[in-house]
Amino acid sequence: MSRKCEICGKGVTSGIQYSHSHRKSKRTWAPNLKKVKAIVKGTPKTIHACTRCLRSGKVQRAI
Q: pTM to 2 decimals?
């Protein structure tokens, strides 16, 4: 499974996580992706879309 939204292109980002004692470790943040059946170019297709695209109505769901 790709970790990228097929609508907006939002993907994994990386950064540094700080503990309470301020020790640093590298980590990644992944987008909240859902597998949905959507209409793409007139045909129903299963895609990975982030929840922001689903809530904002950028994805036309297939029945």
A: 0.80
Which residues are within 8 A (CB) of 14 and not within 5 positions of it... i.e. 6 or more apart? 26, 27, 28, 29
Q: Return the CATH number at 38.
A: 2.30.170.40
User: Which residues constitute the domain of residue 61?
Assistant: 1-63
Distance of alpha carbon 3 from alpha carbon 43, whole angstroms: 23
Per-residue pLDDT reduced to its tens digit, 9-59: 999 999 999 999 999 999 999 999 999 999 999 999 999 999 999 999 999
Residues 6+ apart with CB under 8 A from 11: 3, 4, 5, 31
Q: How many domains does the chain have?
A: 1
Return the SS3 of 21: coil
